Amino acid sequence: MIEVINMTEKDKRVLKYAIDNLIARENNLCEGSCKNNPVHRAERERDRDLIIFGIRDVLCEVERLEEQEKEMLEKAKHEVVQF
Questions:
Q1: Closest C-alpha to 53, from 17, 13, 26, 32
Q2: Which residues form a coiled coil (predicted)?
Q3: What is the C-alpha separation between 51 and 53, in angstroms, rounded?
Q4: Distances 41 to 17, 45, 49, 67 between C-alpha atoms, Å
Q5: pLDDT > 70? residue 82
Q6: Does some domain include residue 46?
């Protein structure tokens, strides 16, 4: 599992950029495949959608972990203030 907590803001931006690039690349691959094999268009588009769904799931998990990190930091700050 990716440890978002240990990632710098730059690392997180690079990861999100890479995910965006993967989605764009899958869309381009699908377009080329459908152009070369129109008979299999429906299957390839379905595969593309599933692949992109999986890639976006990764992005959602990174964002969830980022939010969890922020909450942990706020909680730690609050606990420090109480002492």
A1: 26
A2: 55-82
A3: 5
A4: 28, 6, 12, 38
A5: no
A6: yes
Number of structural domains the chain divides into: 1
Type of residue at 73: L
DSSP-derived secondary structure letter, 7: S
**Cβ distance 58 to 79 under 8 Å?**
no
**Does a structural domain hold residue 43?**
yes
Assess contact for 48 and 41: CB atoms under 8 A: no
| pLDDT tens column, 12-57 | 889 889 999 999 999 999 999 999 999 999 999 999 999 999 999 9
Is the residue at 71 inside a domain? Answer: yes
Instruction: Supply the range of the domain harboring residue 69.
Output: 17-82
Kindly state whether residue 61 falls inside one of the protein's structural domains.
Answer: yes
19 vs 28, 30, 51, 82, CA distance in Å? 14, 17, 12, 40
